[in-house]
Automatic annotation (TrEMBL):
GO MF: phosphatase activity
Swiss-Prot/TrEMBL keywords: Hydrolase
GO cellular component entries: cytoplasm
Protein name: HAD-superfamily class IIA hydrolase, TIGR01459
Organism: Bosea lupini
Cross-referenced SUPFAM superfamilies: HAD-like
InterPro entries: HAD-like_sf (IPR036412), HAD-SF_hydro_IIA (IPR006357), HAD-SF_hydro_IIA_hyp3 (IPR006356), HAD_sf (IPR023214)
Gene3D superfamilies (alphabetical): HAD superfamily/HAD-like
Length: 276
């Protein structure tokens, strides 16, 4: 902790499992704040930062334990509102939203016309999903129709899986986006590991990169994103990669971790079983 002043913390798989906080996670944030560290919750959630903050409060993470939540969903909304990049500028206004039931508000305030028919859409906005009720298989016919029309997709959560409370994995929106790419669709991703969201976080922290560390459980998102941003990283083994590591009780086998890192082509600065 003394080596860093700014901490970018993942949410799912690091702070909580979607139902309860991981052991020691709340205490870890309390310790960071007592040491006057800057903390940003950097989440690939498609929901707004304020909605994530409300969810964190239910898990026991008080609002004063971190400075801000920066979400992939907000990153996508900011880009769609600004339209200052060629990809977003070329998108039309008629949007087919893929999200959990009752979350149409995630596309509000962007000047978009929401449509329910692929034939009427200019692009697809993939924000959230509710597995297993919503799934890649369930959306496949829609994706095939969209691909036939060459509709671009904006993915506001690139995670392909997320840790579930039973220790397994659930499908996440990034898996839908990957399936769309396999059909020939063009996808623009927002969130980790894309550089845009790290530029936002570093600007908010106002710290030299050498004094910032990212903590996450996904090698493809948290660790890859940190490496791309030129900052140190901490890999949490108890998240989505738990089943790929050999465990001796609560301890990770170092050799199995190194083998996992080699397969993924990612080298975190540090590795811990859990945050706390």
């Amino acid at each position: 902790m003394p080596r860093y002043d700014g901490f970018l913390l993942d949410q799912w798989g690091v702070l909580h499992d979607g139902i309860r906080p991981y052991p020691g996670a709340v205490a870890a944030l309390e310790m960071l704040r007592r040491a006057s560290k800057r903390v940003i919750i950097l989440s690939n959630s498609g929901r707004r930062g304020a909605e994530n903050a409300a969810q964190l409060a239910k898990f026991g993470f008080a609002r004063d334990l971190y400075d801000e939540v920066v979400s992939a969903g907000d990153d996508a909304r900011d880009a769609l509102a600004a339209r200052d990049e060629p990809f977003h500028r070329a998108l039309g206004r008629r949007c087919l939203l893929l999200a959990r039931e009752g979350e149409a508000h995630l596309a509000q305030g962007l000047g978009l016309d929401l449509v329910d028919d692929v034939a009427l859409a200019d692009f697809i906005l993939l924000m959230t999903m509710d597995p297993p009720r919503q799934s890649v298989a369930g959306w496949m016919s829609l994706l095939e129709a969209a691909s036939a029309r060459r509709l671009p997709m904006v993915c506001a959560n690139p995670d392909m899986h997320r840790a579930s409370p039973d220790g397994g994995l659930q499908e996440a929106p990034g898996l839908v986006a990957r399936a769309y790419e396999q059909l020939g669709g063009i996808v623009r991703y927002h969130g980790k590991p894309e550089s845009r969201i790290y530029r936002t976080c570093l600007a908010k922290l106002g710290l030299d990169r050498s004094r910032v560390v990212a903590i996450g459980d996904s090698l493809a998102h948290d660790i890859a994103g940190a490496q791309g941003a030129g900052i140190d990283s901490v890999f949490i083994g108890g998240g989505i990669h738990r089943g790929e590591i050999v465990w001796d009780g609560a301890s990770m086998d170092p050799a199995s971790c190194l083998a996992l890192f080699a397969r993924a082509g990612r080298s975190p600065t540090y590795a811990l079983p859990l945050l706390g």
